[in-house]
Amino acid sequence: MIHTLPTRISGVEILRSQATGTSSKEASAWFSAISQQFGGPRRERVVCTRAGQLTAPSYYRLGGTDRTLRCLSGEMVVVVIDTRHDSPTFAQWHSFLLSSDNARGLWIPAGVAVGWQTVSPRAQLAFSQRLCQGRSQQGWLRWDDPQLAIGWPSIPQDLLEQPATALDLEEIANPDLPCLAQVRRTKVPQAKCSVWYPAAAIRRTLHRQEKTRTQIQFAKVQVDASRTPLQLPNELSNAPGVVGARQPGAAAGITSRATSAMEPTTAKDVILVIGSSGQLGHDLCRYLRQLGTVVGACRDPEKHGLLPVPTFVDISRPASIRTAIRKVRPKLIVNATGLTNVDRAEKDPRIAQLVNAAAPAIMAEEAREVGAGMIHFCTDMVFDGSGERPWNERDRPNPLNQYGRTKLLGTEAIRASGVPHLILRTGWLYSTHGENYVKSIVDLCTYRSSITLASDHFGSPTSTDWLARTLTELLSSGTNDLVGWLAQFGGLYHLSNLGFASRVEVGDQIIATCKQLTLPVVLQKFHSAKQAELPTPTPCPLNCRLDSSAIAVKFGMTLPRWQAELNLQIAKLLDSSILPAQSVA
Ligand SMILES: NC(=O)c1ccc[n+]([C@@H]2O[C@H](COP(=O)([O-])OP(=O)(O)OC[C@H]3O[C@@H](n4cnc5c(N)ncnc54)[C@H](OP(=O)(O)O)[C@@H]3O)[C@@H](O)[C@H]2O)c1
């Protein structure tokens, strides 16, 4: 059975089903479920792609066929664009992360264009479309239509399937406009490239067709300043219909999108994010691109999931850390690693010591060596959880478990190293990717009727998306000299979303949000118990409240309430969106 969830693009739905094992088994199970639910006969195929490859958006004209897609292996960003002029979401686009892990598919009605780019080293996509009679009604939309400014994960290394007939959205929406692509093909046969024509060829054709609408057609080719490497020929500049360079979003009636937060800026400082496969590391890689060139580092590139391919590092081996840092020679080292599984840290204190305590110390040594600054993340678990008052930066740590103890050692080593640093002490992190309690509860509440959570364990749920974005905003005032900025404004700060809740209250909020977003929820209410009654082997502090007022006052920040941020992130999780600049609006 496939469950459907609405998305922000009218008529496009997320399809949720259970993963069924290997990709070939999964493909046939998926295809037969689609046929049963949505009817046939259908054309089915499995498409294989590599990292960076981009399949340009295509659409079926109204009355044409619907399509479904689902990622069988790897990870890809799928972008849907509404080309239906009469739709309430016309000219809007939205992106979804489809992966073998989230086992989600998409239902794309006729009139909605869909394209995709692979972000994992390899990916397989199961594609199914209803067969329809008569001529193909398929059309193509330019992947780089400047008015749409689609935030693809990266500039495509390999562009698949963008034919010469690809049109701007404006041309699709206004069928009376002359068909630019046909002009390109038939009137300028000597042009080798489907996008650009030599200025001389345009001039010659213009001369021949002086009195026709072709002038305007060619003007349309040329006025897109964001793409033209050519000078406008004089006669073209003066031709009727040419009004100068057209900036993205200038055309009337088209809703232009904000430039993606994933675009790199011109600053060239190299930022090394160690632990880029973790939930916080992943978001840091996405946001910090605004400040410089981000290089991810992790031990399993398959889990990194973003371009470019990360550097290898095993932080339990000092030599590996040193090699990675000396190879990249960053201006900023961001340590998002940690042995975060508290029970594992308790069982294996040697690894906890290496990862949480020794590794940050080595990173700080290397940072000094290459002249870099450091960002590090510490935990609320360095406190013993007594009382009910939120902990501030001046409170004395007194960890109860190995995780807290080793994280404290790592933090102290960085502070003692003299390297310019910013240490953010946070807690109860969750994200729309990776493993965390919010994602587990969202999944569990759709099929479990009873779950018990602690009612005396308090903290502030904090989204990694917000944390990474906030850190990027903080650092953005120091992009001219990140190290200098850290030396002047750095230090240790508490930083989490605003307000506190018990684990049960967080669970109740998650259920309420899921219901609001029409997720079929089976669980009605959580059972509550004292933390001591739950089967958790490792002692954990009960009071994990953090007081973030010092950083908020110092940098004039307004912290979002944890409930608002949680609602936003769950909406994103159910949409599978990965583009924060879009979704936050
Ligand atoms: N999660 C929380 O609630 C929380 C609360 C407060 C503070 N923090 C701190 O915030 C930071 C990020 O947390 P998170 O929730 O994003 O953690 P996470 O999702 O568990 O990610 C941890 C990262 O550390 C990497 N790592 C662990 N051992 C490694 C090794 N030997 N070699 C290379 N990489 C290794 C992991 O790599 P693999 O993917 O290969 O395992 C992963 O990339 C950590 O410093 C954590 O202590 C977390």
UniProtKB/TrEMBL annotation:
GO terms for molecular function: dTDP-4-dehydrorhamnose 3,5-epimerase activity; dTDP-4-dehydrorhamnose reductase activity. It is an enzyme of class 1 (oxidoreductase). Gene3D superfamilies: Jelly Rolls, NAD(P)-binding Rossmann-like Domain, UDP-galactose 4-epimerase, domain 1. The keyword GTP-binding does not apply. Keywords: NADP, Oxidoreductase. The keyword Oxidoreductase applies. One of its GO terms (biological process) is dTDP-rhamnose biosynthetic process. Pfam families: dTDP_sugar_isom, RmlD_sub_bind. Residues 271-572 form the RmlD-like substrate binding domain. It catalyses: dTDP-4-dehydro-6-deoxy-alpha-D-glucose = dTDP-4-dehydro-beta-L-rhamnose; dTDP-beta-L-rhamnose + NADP(+) = dTDP-4-dehydro-beta-L-rhamnose + NADPH + H(+). Its EC number is 1.1.1.133. Pathway: Carbohydrate biosynthesis; dTDP-L-rhamnose biosynthesis. GO terms for cellular component: cytosol. It comes from the Bacteria. NCBIfam families: rmlD (TIGR01214). Catalyzes the reduction of dTDP-6-deoxy-L-lyxo-4-hexulose to yield dTDP-L-rhamnose. Catalyzes the epimerization of the C3' and C5'positions of dTDP-6-deoxy-D-xylo-4-hexulose, forming dTDP-6-deoxy-L-lyxo-4-hexulose. Belongs to the dTDP-4-dehydrorhamnose reductase family. This is dTDP-4-dehydrorhamnose reductase. It comes from Aureliella helgolandensis. The gene is rfbD.
